[in-house]
Amino acid sequence: MNSATAPVRRLAATATPDLPESASQGSRGAILNAALHLFAEHGFEGASMRDIATASGIQPATIYSHFPSKQHLLAELVGIGHAEHYRRTSTALLECQPTPAAQVVAFVQAHVRMHAELSMLAVVANAELHALKPEIGGHVFQLREQSTQQLQTLIERGMAGGDFALEDAWLATAAIGGMGLRVAYWYGDDSDQSVDGIAHTYARFALRILGVADTHPDMPREPNGP
Amino acid sequence: MNSATAPVRRLAATATPDLPESASQGSRGAILNAALHLFAEHGFEGASMRDIATASGIQPATIYSHFPSKQHLLAELVGIGHAEHYRRTSTALLECQPTPAAQVVAFVQAHVRMHAELSMLAVVANAELHALKPEIGGHVFQLREQSTQQLQTLIERGMAGGDFALEDAWLATAAIGGMGLRVAYWYGDDSDQSVDGIAHTYARFALRILGVADTHPDMPREPNGP
DNA sequence: TGTCAATACGAACGTTCGTTCGGTTCATCG
DNA sequence: CGATGAACCGAACGAACGTTCGTATTGACA
User: Fold this and answer.
1) How many contacts, defined by CB atoms under 8 Å, are there between A and B?
2) Residue A170, helix vs strand vs coil
3) Cβ neighbours of B135 in A, within 8 Å
4) Would you say A223 and A196 are in contact if contact means Cβ atoms under 8 Å apart?
5) Best of A3, A10, A142, A179 to disrupt the B interface by mutation (most B CBs within 10 Å)?
6) Distance, angstroms, CA A64 to C1' C25?
7) Could you tell me if B116 and B183 are in contact, meaning their C-beta atoms sit under 8 angstroms apart?
8) B65 C-beta less than 7 Å away from strand D
């Protein structure tokens, strides 16, 4: 009955460790952290430099001692987010068995974990990418393309080897990537789902999308109990 | 090589029929249409009333002859989007066979078609929902909840009847809903995929996620050729 | 023909925006 | 001790913001 008064939040998370540790120290880190929270909740245009200054406990002018502009602040966050995503998926692919199904499982689990554990960073990197001027964003777009290509290549190789049963690798890439992306918006500290459980289930969903039977040896088993 | 200069678009569509016909006539319709394009591309806070006025060929002050505020402009668009989505999925469910698998196929195809054919409306209704003040948004949140509940109920009934093989109805709802939602962002006028083809494939993906065999009679067959 | 309501307009209101400027503090180091 | 440079601040800049005001135009109807 209180549905008309509660504000509508853009994502569920509030207090997760929102930045990889290296970037969250000192005044510069405080600014980044405040900008991350405000950009995630209100969007780039919806958060002012004064808001960011207040949230990080310093004056607006001081932000310009650490970042040349609001755009560069966004660029740093979007860059960190994409780099972290690419780092996680790449590492996961290096550490798993070299079969197509196992690689898809590794990729999807890393993908999902990223969007759950660093949901604010993921939301900003995805939803505010359009606000980033190309001359400042630059290399981020390449990283983004590479991450998509990673998954699509896995799927195409599985199709070519007869491991997967589907017609269109691109549609499957979009579907699997998209369902993982959305995790960042609904996963919160109070979710009754564990990150491991979500990653496990989504990996299973991904293999099912690709036409892999539940009896396949690479199909993820039940995760450990609570 | 031109990757550093091209602006990053938020969604791919540009010229689709962006509003249900009834709402797009007269000056009021021109304003709504301009606001839809600008909100979709730049976000609510990123588009100014002057931008909307210029795009619709009238003066800023005149907008206030048709809408009491910028918030109400957004509320109307978000409301139309959610109403249209709920109308499409509800109609689809009424017209299909009453088996769980056929109902999921009908829902997912309507869901996907909505996000492809009215991609701007879908982007605004989803990505800008957080900018809508609760006292102005109001009933939209109920519609949103109902649409999610529609799909989750279908899945739960299929699970109870033994038609689907999975553990968690909510995770499947989130995954299937999320992958369809993302279609609005990448589907464009120049996509080499047809809307029918995408809807067909995503319905198939959905049934696979739910553990339905490819040989099940409700599994969608190949759509008609080109 | 006179009146009313709807639609449109140019100009301006007060506020907030991103950013800059001049100056202060303070630890570091020759 | 004096110099240096980074971090920080209060105050202000011009521009852009959502919105309001007073007025002009118009078509429908008495």
Assistant:
1) 131
2) helix
3) 4-5
4) yes
5) A179
6) 18
7) yes
8) no
* Tokens 């999925």, residue located: B89
Q: In tens digits, what is the pLDDT along chain B, a chain of 226 residues?
A: 444 457 788 999 887 666 776 666 788 999 999 999 999 999 999 999 999 999 999 999 999 999 999 999 999 999 999 999 999 999 999 999 999 999 999 999 999 999 999 999 999 999 999 999 998 887 898 999 999 999 999 999 999 999 999 999 999 999 999 999 999 999 988 888 999 999 999 999 999 999 999 999 999 976 554 4
Residue with tokens 């504000």: A7
Distance CA B39, CA B164 (A): 39
- The DSSP string of A39-79 is HHHH-TTTS-HHHHHHHHTS-HHHHTTT-S-HHHHHHHHHH
CB B3, CB A141: distance < 8 Å: yes
- CA pair distance A30, A24, nearest whole angstrom: 6
Closest to B169 (Cα-Cα) out of B149, B186, B189: B149
Q: Which two tokens stand for residue A18?
A: 């929102």
Q: Is A65 helix (H, G, I), strand (E, B) or coil?
A: coil
